[in-house]
Amino acid sequence: MIVIAVHGGAGNARPVTLKERREGVQKAMEAGWEILTHGGTALDAVEAAVRVMETLPFFNAGMGSVLNGDGIAEMDAGIMDGRNLNVGAVAAVSHIRHPVTLARRVLESEFVLLAGSGAEGFAWEHGFHHVPNRDLVTKQRLETWLENAGFSGKPAGYPWGDTVGAVALDASGSLAAATSTGGLTGKRAGRVGDSPLPGCGFWADNEWGAVSTTGLGETIVRSLLARRAVEGLERGLAPKDAADQALVYLKEKTGGWAGLILMTPNGETVARFNSSSMSYAIMRDDWKAPKFSE
Ligand code: GLY
User: Which domain holds residue 151?
Assistant: First the structure.
């Protein structure tokens, strides 16, 4: 069986972008699907899917990332291989077009997580191009930042979300997960959320399941949301119940909001959230057509 699921973030998306997001998650899903149908790995599929969303301006990842309190797009990403629990992640990078691919390169190295200028130094050594930060900043994100000038490190209340992620199951039975984000609008420079942290923003283990999360990073970290959802599967819960119980725990313990996509080793997949919306797309080889968020 092959299966892919992608999300374009939980939050309160402005209606004007809902159609674009649906097309965006479809494109991302198709990029991963193409790899899976040609016998590629789940790891390649989730990277490809996330790369697509990192190029689309209405998602909060890569180009189109929200701006921090200093007016800079500062991004985090992580990726995990369910075959061996290998993890690669980068945090607070500002000159990388595809943070998920830099995270993949870290996964292939002796490191797990590289941050800031150290991560970028690693990128230049590995042939990544230095992208001026202004090339990652869209007009809309700049306007939002200017309208809210004076952010000074305080996240802008209930943000639009839009962190992106993917989980996949390949023909060999392997799972993978990836997540990429610009973080929270107006966040303090140097603030890192859940997205580059295994067990928080993502998780993949062939034995139990794969997850990518989205939402208010501090509360996702404090509740270990991705790992908690997979633990539900380990305890014998159905995927929907495992996801919902993890989200209830997050809400009750931290007051936060979030969403996630969760996939089991036999390809059962759910998309669940306690925010007002989350865009997603899921495709399996025993379905005639993909399933989308409303
Ligand atoms: N979930 C993305 C963030 O809080 O950074």
Answer: 3-66+73-292
